[in-house]
Amino acid sequence: MSESPVSGERAGDTASLGPRERVLPTISEPLAAAASAPVGGPVGEHAAVGRHWFWTPLRVALLFGVFALALAWFGKAACVQQFDAGNGKLELDWRSGRPYVAMCYSDVVPLYSAERLDRGGFPYKTSWVENKGKPNETVRYMEYPVLTGLFQWANAKMAQGWVQLADQGWLPTGLPVVVYFDITAFWLALAWLITLWATLLTARRRPWDAAFIALSPLVMVHAFTNFDTLATAFAALGLLAWARKKPVLAGIMLGLGGAAKLYPLFLLGPLLVLCLRGGKLREWAWTTGAAAVSWLAVNAAIYLPEDTRAGWSQFFTLNSLRGADPDSLYNVLEKFTGWEGFDPGLPFGESPFWLNTVSAVLFVVCCAGVAVIGLRAPVKPRVAQLSFLVVAFFLLTNKVWSPQYSLWLVPLAVLAVPRWRVLLAWMVVDALVWAPRMFYFMGDSKKGLPEEWFLGVVVVRDLAVLALCALVIYEVYHPARDLVRALGDDDPAGGVLDGAPDRFVLKPRREPVPA
């Protein structure tokens, strides 16, 4: 006899988790049902679910994640190949446009020298002059937020220590930048596995959704393009802590995430709207206060010393000075319409005032719209639904959409709208942006793709994200169509909001006419 996974009582060997304890994707998801054909098809009607001693959904999801991350590493491996440049000297093989032809480009590799990590100094103290003697001469420091900058510095120190041990014959050797990339990839992979773990626990009765995102094409392409899995891990841990009714821990995780990338702090906005509606402002205040304290504590360590203050401000300065990114809608409009942009003829070193203003105003307007949706919907929206909308609208309205930013959406999208075919279609389109981007960056002189091809795929990607937003909003106003609520759940990620009655709502101007 064994213990029933459903009731905790002694039960026979046929005890099984029912659909109210675990959603079975091969039954509910056409995509999963089709994918299961090579291994025998959907789970049987009388199968004992949830009784295997080892292969739990969490372990399967982590195994899928390791497999996808291995593919992601091999996708970047072409950019860390070495060759003998003569006299036994090894150099990184980036000849003949290899990063673009092989589509293996990763910011991690060039930043090792570009951020002066190879020099051994502390990143926010170390400065250098770019374009010395030219009109655009400027003093530079580490350009990333504090946690991401310190992450790079720590990995560089580990890589340099590895090379020293290798020189003594203790370890296999290689170029320091190659060792640095591999060490960084290890920690980024671990951060994504933490993202999977936290998302799976947050999903509760839908754990297989996390197994689905483990195999996301976006992960295979962008897990090691930059350092964004650090932020996804903190954001996912913050949502899990909120779901477990630990608002202070949730705030700490979101604050640390904001010290790595800005976007985890955006999740405080949806929580404010939902806590206002559910009368839980005290819990929101604890979360926001903890987020502020943790963010300030990390940043104060770099801001307060005078010799690192200028380095600390570099991230904010450069973001203010940046123009429209190639992946942004503003660049698409400029290219396809011949428009000169919001700030034509801007002198070097001046911020694009109107571009920054328009981008910020559009995002604020979108956030206001999300707040109205959250307060006027017939049923309180789920945390993941509003969180996805806010992050998606930020990416759509922002002047910068670096390709790896799409990773931010993956866990939120699966929690917000767990429709696998729809999600897979978006992820494939988004991942495919990488190919024309790489060949466009090669330039026409090297037989690269014209810019219009790249921008055309960007438009399709943006339309796919907008379609996801529309689907989320539709399900907010039609909660009976929400798959998460199909079996009676309110909000698995809601924490104190889960099942809480409404305390404040915005009534529609006209009451619906009775059927």
UniProtKB/TrEMBL annotation:
This is DUF2029 domain-containing protein. GO terms for molecular function: hexosyltransferase activity. It comes from Actinokineospora bangkokensis. Belongs to the glycosyltransferase 87 family. Coiled coil: none annotated. It is found in: Cell membrane. One of its GO terms (cellular component) is plasma membrane. It comes from the Bacteria. It is a multi-pass membrane protein. Keywords: Cell membrane, Membrane, Transferase, Transmembrane, Transmembrane helix. The chain crosses the membrane at residues 60-83, 177-200, 212-242, 248-272, 353-376, 383-402, 422-441, 453-474. Pfam families: GT87.
